[in-house]
Structure formats: structure tokens, C-alpha cells
Amino acid sequence: MATVLVTEFMDGSALAFLKNRLHVDYVPDLFQRNAELMQRVTEADALIVRNRTQVTADIFTQAKNLKAVGRLGVGLDNIDLKAAAKAHVEVLPATGANAIAVAEYVMSALLHLRRPMTTGFQAMVGGDWPREQFIGGEISGKTIGLLGFGQIAQIVAARATAFGMRIAYFDPYLPEMTDQSDALRLPSLEELLAISDCVSIHVPLNDETFRLIDSERLAQMKTGAILINTSRGGIVDEKALIHHIKTGHIGGAALDVFEDEPLDQLNGARFGGIEQLVLTPHIAGVTHESNHRVSQVTAENVLRALGYE
What we know:
With 309 residues, this protein is of the alpha/beta class. The protein folds into 2 domains: 3-95 and 289-305, Rossmann fold (3-Layer(aba) Sandwich); 99-279, NAD(P)-binding Rossmann-like Domain (Rossmann fold, 3-Layer(aba) Sandwich), CATH 3.40.50. The protein has helices spanning 12-19, 34-40, 57-62, 81-86, 99-114, 121-125, 151-162, 189-195, 215-220, 238-246, 265-269, 288-305, and strands spanning 3-6, 23-26, 46-49, 68-71, 90-93, 143-147, 166-170, 183-185, 198-201, 225-229, 250-255, 277-279. Strands 8-7-6-9-10-11-12 form a 7-stranded parallel β-sheet, with helices on both faces. The radius of gyration is 21 Å and the shape is globular.
């Protein structure tokens, strides 16, 4: 019977689905113990990870039986893809399974940053009536700029359109679209930044996108614009973003991902005292519903790769 090693949390029903067909070694905190990971993976025919397990070249060298790596999500920057190809190991992301969760997060963050209703709670229960402080603004009629226009960004566009927003995007790798006539395709990132009231990032992290949104690019954004990053930490220069928020040039930001994860006390303290920030611990794509979909898709992908149709 084939063995699959699962190193991070996975939906229980998908685990049961796997256990009915093969041996499952489920150690959801194994990503924290590299030596044990290296030992356990030697017995694995497949490996299932999220974003915190570093699937390095050493793992592919050590795991002689490994045929597939299932990714509980879509980002692949924690997997050495060249080493996987060299070892003839199939890498299987759960493409599209968490797209709705991410899109809803983007809209929730945007609405909160434009009209932060929850921040008035303490004042209200304390007997204050801070109407002018919490009036906020509307998103209808504003432009959302999408950096990258893949599946998730297109779902964001559909939801933003329902709120009456204008849609613009920049994606130099996307073929010409024929079914997005209401979305304005721009020829450069600079033009996208210049016209957008909100910029939402939907690109992978690689050498080309590392700190793509740096201080110079932040300065090109409209005064008061909002930045949302649900993609990968490292795409945004966090120190530069803090500076531009404090000067008032950037109106607010939502960060679900960070260059160094998880945030330690020092890195977290940099964001302290900035009211125009939403910070969440890499959960944009994780809801109860999406976790079920992602886990089930990953389980099916791995079974297929191992020949369990």
C-alpha cells in the first residue's frame, strides 16, 4: 500500500478519503521539525504540504519513492520545482479551489479600509458618539487595479463590478482576453498604479516580482489609494509601505502575507500604531469551505498520480 506524508493541517473528510485507499502519515506540525521530516519522507510515495513546509532539493534526493507532491493551495514558491522535475516528481497545486475565499477576503478588506465600522466599538460602548470619525467612503465608482489577472483576480473583478467599481488590470503574461470587455487592460504597471483607487496583488513570488512594489512604485500610486496583498510576502517592500502610510500618501493596506512568516515580535512591532492597516496570518485563502475543497482536490490529485483512479 502506498504511503502519503501530510505535514500541515488538512480537512478531516479528505484525510478519511485518503485513508480508505492508502496509508496516511498525518503529522500536521512536521514542517517545524526538519530532521524528522527528512526521516519520515524516506518512506513516502507522496507528500502533501501547505506553504510552510520547505520542499527542498534535499527532500527530493532523500525520498527515493516519492512520485508526487500535493500542494494544499496554489503558491509553489516553497517547493524546489527544478529539483522536482529532475527527480521526476509531479507537483500538484489545488488550482482554483481557494479562489472564492481569496476574492471575498479582498472585498472584505477593501470595504473595511474604506469604512472601518468595527473600529468604533470601544468608543461606542464607552458612551461616545464619533460620527464624523467613522463616516468613511464608498467604493462604488472607484477603480480597482488588479496586478495579475488569473482566476482569482477575475473572481475579484466580478465581485467588484457588482459593487459598481471600475476594473483595470496589468498582466503581461496573459493572452488577449475576449470575455472581459468591461475590464481595462493597461500596458504597464505604472499606468495601473496611477489610475487605481485600490491595488490588489495576484502574482506569484519569483525573482521578477520580489519587492516589485517598492518605494518608487508606491509613490506612483494615487494619494489615498489602498493596497491589498493576498499573494506572497516579499512582493511588497513592507518598510516602504509603512513609510508611505505614515506620510499619508497611501490611504491604507491589507496584508495577509509577509516577507518573513510567521511574524516575530520585532517584525510585527513595525506595524504597530498604524490604524489604516489590516494584518492577517496568511488566511485569505483558508475558510471552512475552501479548506474542504482544497483538501479534497489535493487528495484526488495525489491518488490519481499514484495510480489510484
